[in-house]
Amino acid sequence: MIYSVINIDMVNSRKLSQRLTIQDELLEMVDDFNKEYTSLLLSPMTLTLGDEWQAVLKKPEKTYFIIDQLQQVFKKAHINIYAGVGIGEISTAIYSDTRKMDGECFILAREAIKIVKNKNVFYNDYIHSKKNRVFFNAKPVMVNNRYDTFSEIAATRIDETTSIDDTTPITLMNIINNLVENNEVLKSKITAKQQDIITLYKQHNSYNKIMKFNKNTSKASISQKLNDAHYFVIKNNDDMIESMIGLYIRLREEICNE
User: Fold this and answer.
1) How far, in Å, CA of 40 to CA of 62, rounded?
2) 66 and 37 in contact (C-beta within 8 Å)?
């Protein structure tokens, strides 16, 4: 089976004052998180080394959704996070303690967290914005001797600076990471007031219900805040990321069953 591992590290954790107090608060919040998302988690999220956390998902297509939820959890403690994701198989038995497990997805997640923590964007081949702290890592699958380029369609990239075509296979993970990076940049620009409206809209999915709980707002104001935050663009990308991870898993499983 294919699983996903999320390795989490806190940004500038060594500079935090009252680290032990913050860690205790996070342990309580993460415990609530584990209870809420037990249907998606293979093993509960646990503290591994120092300020690093790890979660294992039995539904990898929900990985980016879970990362978004974790970003909100850590933001309550005014902390930003790095998230490195590995998608693949587990080679050991399944344990409730993630530290007892290992395999492809764990190795790839360790590689991913190193990539995303490389702060020098100029020398980082995978991360192109300092606002992006999320990276997905998975082995490219082969379909009839081609990479996972949408069934068997070869995707190409043209180098416009030369007269020579630079034909490069574009894998599903390339596209997933591109969508993730676009989303992370957009999310970094969301204001506190916009986030409040987004949270209410996710809860109620109705302008009228939001107005019922917030007497001082209007449909026009709600709409403007959602659009200024690019909420619907982000939501569309979220759905696309989930679908593409699902497609990647199906391709992997088809190859394993051949």
Assistant:
1) 8
2) yes
